[in-house]
Specification:
By secondary structure, the protein is mainly beta. 3% of the residues lie in helices and 62% in strands.
Length: 674
Amino acid sequence: MYLEAVTVKAQKRSQKAHDVPASIAALDDVQLKDMDIKDTDDLALHVPNLEFSNFGSRRHGFMFLRGIKSLPAGEPGTGYFVDGINFSKSYMFNFPLFEVEQVEVMKGPQGTLYGRNTMGGVINVYTKKPGNEVESTLGAEIGNLHSKEFRASWSGPVVEDKLFLGVYGLGAFKDGYMVNDTPTDGDDGRHQDGKSGRLKLRYLPTDDLDMTLSFDVQNHDDGAYSMRRTERNSFVESGRYEADDPYHYSHDYEGSQKNDCWGLALNSEYQTGFGKLHSITGYRHFDSNEKIDADFTPSDIMRKNYNLKDRDFSQEFRFVSPEDNGPLNWLAGGHFFLLNSNTEITNLYGADHRAAGSNMKFKTDKDNTGAALFGQGTYSFRDDFDITVGLRYEYEYASADSYKGQTPAGGSEATLVDRSASNSFSKFLPKFALAYRLTDKHTLYGTVSRAHRAGGFNDATAPADHQAYSEEDSWLYEVGFKSVFWDDRLNFNVSGFYTSIEDEQLPLFEADSMQGYIANAGRSHRMGVEVDSQVVVMEGLNLSGTFTWMEAEFDNYSPSEGESYKGNRVFGVPDYTYTVATDYRRNIIGDWGFFGRAELVGIGSRYFDDANTVKEDPYELVNLKVGVEGEHLDVYLWSKNLLDREFVIMENVTAGIAEDGAPRTFGISIDYRF
């Protein structure tokens, strides 16, 4: 009756989480199932200081980790890795978490080991590897909103001890919960139609070499931009239309969003007498097609077609010292990447627009090429004091070609903008950390580290004076205490941090083109406290809780002459979050047992604009799951947002459009293991 020690690979080597001088949350496959975590949206509810939502569509994923934004219009602020492969944009982050071995969230800048775009931290997803043991499952889930989910997996040996195969599949379908009050063809907003699959081939040619080839594919055909008008919408302010009620919208055209993405990864580990050599090769292919009612009214004013294609290649080599290397543990490596992104946006002006029958087209082709060298070492003095030093050097070359063309009704296309731009960036990203073990159960640590977010180029929808945006730099200062008490039945972790940010990248919005772009602010900071704890009350009964407090403010930001946002809170960041949960698992009879989990999630107040004019009040969500578990069969009843709490995911204050969070959902889940 005790808490088991958790092993993590967040610092690119296997360590006990208790020994990592950083705030880290790790959830294994059992916890992911118990918490009913199926995607990044669910994960965010269970990790302190992590928020995620798909605002408008799956492509429009917003992530905040320790108040650092990841926005689809620009570079992410958090690194997202699946089996060591970087997902380069936040619109790729909502990865379906099925047949996952462990998820690790390492908070704070991680530039030394992970490089660009890891200012908020890093999320590592490790999917299950096939082995000698045959494992196969079938699962199904049925719930309200006509939701259905089907999942299946098989893994086992093709040649015992040498060659192994794993095959995993998932399908998830659901009606929308946003109701269109204007009759149209199509399903209600926020409906879901998604299919995912993964194939893994693992080969052990010798005792020292382990190679895994992975292929994954996703296809999603979901509702898009079922936004309701708020009192800040220009049509509402002019009196032409009224604001929509919560969970209702009124569009003359039902939008859609289709994603097709797939990826290949080759992970190789070779054990030598001097350490372990890792090679990680990855390719990601992402296609997205959106059709949007861009005026968000019952009138035929403007529709938008948004086509996006991404092609990403990455290669990393690293050499890691042996686990029994004495007082010095080290790793060193190199990283290379090629990123290509093409967007084509067409604004189609309808019968109710003054330029009916015309269109405006925007095209952007972006290329990024980069390389890095990195190393990190930890030296242990005596048995109770560790010092860690790391350094990374990065170089990146970025270029963009932008085009803007206009076609009048019945006429031919005329070029308005045709420009090219390029730039290069280079950075040194150091890290220093100290850890002092008061006892083998209590550790104090302190960390100082640097990270940066890459600069880039806006497309031709942005104003002329915002063709490019600069890099964003940050320094982290963190202290923490990790502890285990009561015969390993209680753990308690607390950390305090301060992150200073220069040239913060901000999302702005161009109302004429109904398109976002990126600009730089001056200085800002994030300061906060994180607490998490878990206790085994008695055999089978666990209590857990987390709490975070966050101050995310501008220190120097003037959006226009004579206007200052100094002291304003950064949009989208709640001032506090907390979770309180209880898990109970016990045997009933024979091989059958009972499981129950109840949790309360609290989200503090936050602003939806940097001017701090639109504020969302605090809210709480209650989730419940109960069921019976057998040797082969598990059956659960579950509900999310049990009390049907109304809340707003996000509002685009400039456009005056908002989307509501999911109402109460409930259902039954069945899993069978062969």
